[in-house]
Inverse folding.
């Protein structure tokens, strides 16, 4: 039996030569059922065309670097198995809704600024001295925010979000999910510092609950839930007499 | 974003349908406001529409309103983060309660309208 092969069609774009991106096809061996799209790209780069550019690092769905559009859906390419697409071709494109720097590499500056704006770290009014020991939490307190802490900043949710695609001023799913992760953390006291950003018209109120961000998340985070719950919380804060609490 | 983005995926399409259902409801409510204004001028000025076209339009609006309400209430379990005695209420219970309240509110309003109409 002839060796199994698969066609990978990848976006190519060299800003110094090309006016706009174009597609290029590569026919590669598909010998191993455990091959993922990232393996295919690595094969192309190693044996066919060393100029193909893309981001990757850990190969195990942890670092969030290798997010791309695979047959029109935002995926971590290290987690997209070729066997799920074969014998059809696999079309690999840069993540939607972001400017393309080169080939499959997107410009993530906008996301990084948004992420920083929600201060995704524990904020204390007064730091607890290191000598005071660990800041203990009950299991129930950890459960409150745990799922939102699984976010790996892969930006698949931004790529799936038509609201962000239509208006990139929107703070976006991952940044809001991470803001909620810290707002729900019993050790954190930074809610008032984050509120001006997340409760802004370009924050949670821009979201119209498409829900696709939660569908594509490779880590099972539910950013749509974080956004809708934040809408409810900020509304109650604003309307209830006891709402303006820390 | 290409103009046909909402046709790319079933999920996007259903989202746009959900949002679109608000439009006929808004038109129907505009008509209702107009009717109330007409009724304010007395019995002579009030001429309720009786044509089959209006009945069909109302039926379509009702179907859209039902679909919109269904999608909204179904998502209540995601949105509402409620605790009773420090324990989180399961999303299924919240959704069931919302649908129950919807049914009760519908029955009460229907009874009021029938009662006032007699």
């Amino acid at each position: 039996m002839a060796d199994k092969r698969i066609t990978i069609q990848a976006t190519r774009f060299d800003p110094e030569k090309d006016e706009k991106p174009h597609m290029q096809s590569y026919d590669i061996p598909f010998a191993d059922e455990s091959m993922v799209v990232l393996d295919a790209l690595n094969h192309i780069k190693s044996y066919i065309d060393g100029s193909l550019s893309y981001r990757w690092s850990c190969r195990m769905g942890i670092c969030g670097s290798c997010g791309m559009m695979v047959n029109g859906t935002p995926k971590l390419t290290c987690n997209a198995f070729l066997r799920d697409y074969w014998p059809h071709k696999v079309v690999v494109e840069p993540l939607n809704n972001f400017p393309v720097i080169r080939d499959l590499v997107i410009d993530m500056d906008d996301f990084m600024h948004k992420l920083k704006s929600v201060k995704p770290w524990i904020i204390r009014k007064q730091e607890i001295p290191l000598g005071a020991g660990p800041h203990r939490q009950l299991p129930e307190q950890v459960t409150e925010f745990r799922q939102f802490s699984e976010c790996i900043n892969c930006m698949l949710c931004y790529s799936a979000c038509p609201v962000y695609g239509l208006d990139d001023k929107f703070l976006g799913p991952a940044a809001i999910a991470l803001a909620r992760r810290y707002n729900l953390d019993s050790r954190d006291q930074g809610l008032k510092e984050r509120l001006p950003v997340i409760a802004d018209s370009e924050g949670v109120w821009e979201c119209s609950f498409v829900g696709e961000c939660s569908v594509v998340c490779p880590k099972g985070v539910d950013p749509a839930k974080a956004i809708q719950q934040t809408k409810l919380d900020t509304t109650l804060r604003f309307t209830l007499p006891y709402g303006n609490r820390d | 974003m290409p103009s046909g983005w909402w046709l790319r995926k079933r999920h996007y399409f259903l989202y746009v349908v959900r949002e679109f259902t608000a439009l006929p409801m808004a038109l129907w409510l505009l008509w209702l406001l107009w009717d109330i204004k007409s009724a304010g001028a007395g019995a002579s000025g009030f001429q309720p529409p009786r044509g089959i076209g209006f009945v069909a339009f109302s039926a379509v609006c009702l179907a859209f309103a039902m679909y919109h309400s269904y999608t909204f209430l179904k998502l209540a379990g995601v949105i509402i983060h409620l605790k009773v005695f420090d324990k989180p209420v399961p999303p299924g219970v919240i959704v069931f309660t919302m649908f129950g309240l919807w049914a009760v509110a519908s029955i009460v309003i229907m009874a009021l309208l029938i009662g006032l109409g007699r």
Observations:
- Residues 37 and 46 of chain B are 9 Å apart (CA to CA).
